[in-house]
Please model this.
Amino acid sequence: MSGRHWTLRTRLTVSTTALLAVVCAVIALITALAMRSFLRQSLDDRLDAVADRSAGTVTRTVGKSAELSYLSAFGVPGGTVGVAVDGGSVTTAEMVSATGEAEQPTAAQQAVLAAVRADGGHYTVRLPGLGVYRVKAVRAGSADGAVVTTGVPLAAVDSIVTRLVVVELVVAAGGLALAGLASAVVVGRNLRPLRQISATALRISGRPLHSGEVSALERVPASDADANTEVGRVAAALNRLLGHVEGALEARHASEQRMRRFLADASHELRTPLAAITGYAQLTRRGTEVVGPQTALALAQVEAGAARLSSLVDDLLLLARLDDNRPLERGEVDLSPLVAEAVRDVHTAAPDHHWRLEVPNEPVLVTGDQARLHQVVANLLANARTHTPAGTTVTAAVRPQEDGILVQVTDDGPGISPELLSRVFERFARGDASRSRAAGGTGLGLAVVSSVVAAHNGRVEAASEPGRTVFTLRLPWGAPSPERIAEAVESY
Ligand SMILES: Nc1ncnc2c1ncn2[C@@H]1O[C@H](COP(=O)(O)OP(=O)(O)OP(=O)(O)O)[C@@H](O)[C@H]1O
Ligand SMILES: [Mg+2]
Model:
């Protein structure tokens, strides 16, 4: 398992425990080595003591065959062996058994012991059948006198050291398990504020902050924002940052509100003079007073301009109302006749396009504002009319689906450029062609579509390529009205 994806808690716990394990291993190693060297030293001291006694024996028996009576003295440890070598051959050999009895070492063992150099040094040899021994050979008196070699077993030292190592390993393993557990708990507790920070940040990042009014942002609890700890300082910094963000969002919301109010007020103020301009122009043109053809044309243009301005003002007012979340009319709307009527209207206005209608026979009901939904479909059809050449086939369809109703307007016109398509529902977004065209729109049509559909809990999507442009509205099914339920019950 790679440690890259471990949590901080796991990483800290594992690294602390690993560090502890290394320290334990070093301590165990040093203790074992020190113990081994100490025990060897004391074994050597014991060997010296026994061997020195042998020297006395040999001195006393010089000239005769050396005897090994020192081996039976009190305190000589079991397993001790001794050989006396005189004139190159072993004269006597003896071993103290574990129970204190005198035994005879084998010839092979005697040979190993006889070969030890008689310089008073300590050597380690392996005696066949007996194991590893520390040995020392002592020469009596003169340079060619008898040599007595004494050996004590190392096995005891080794077994003590082995036992020590086993005990150390068991204690260390238990200690490490406990330390690992304790460190997981302690690290977990210390990282709690960090978890709080990430949970808070996660919750805030899940909130829609890009628009609208943002109510108070959640903070990391003060208990986890202790400025005396590193993690606490991060929490405190995050809380401060959230304070600033909150202030900035409030300022943005206030400025949006001001802008909306200004737009709504300005649109409202424009409405009355526009109505007056339209009214007076119509009155003068159609009145009894005779006007010249030029004046009549000018008046018609004034009327057309005023009408376009009125529709712009109406769109702006509608958008302002929708931005303000002001409720729309809510009624039961059958989409099939609504779309059919809109197609009929546009057909009259643009007979050079081919208009096709695909609606089911049964009612397709949504809950909403009939006039606004009609405006939505009319806007899409108007776009298919104004932004495509004559002869284009436009299909308006209502397609009931399990999870909602699709209303689609498809045309086989030139399409929308990808650059414009990505922002086509933004306010005042329109193609260059529309901008330069004398009768070009304002670029609010699709923004109104998007806002009205959103107010009906629906979605709108646009897909376009040369030869095929599709606008799709997805609207939720409407709850049937009480009257309709009553009707259905009656006809049952
Ligand atoms: N069916 C379509 N085919 C080609 N281009 C389209 C189509 N529908 C929309 N567009 C492009 O998208 C732009 C934005 O459309 P939108 O309806 O928002 O504004 P508009 O039609 O220019 O003005 P308005 O609808 O406010 O009178 C248009 O200017 C046009 O360039
Ligand atoms: Mg339009």
Notes: The longest strand covers residues 131-139. The domain at 10-162 is CATH 3.30.450 (Beta-Lactamase). Residues 59-65 have pLDDT under 50 and may be disordered. The two ends are 66 Å apart (CA to CA).
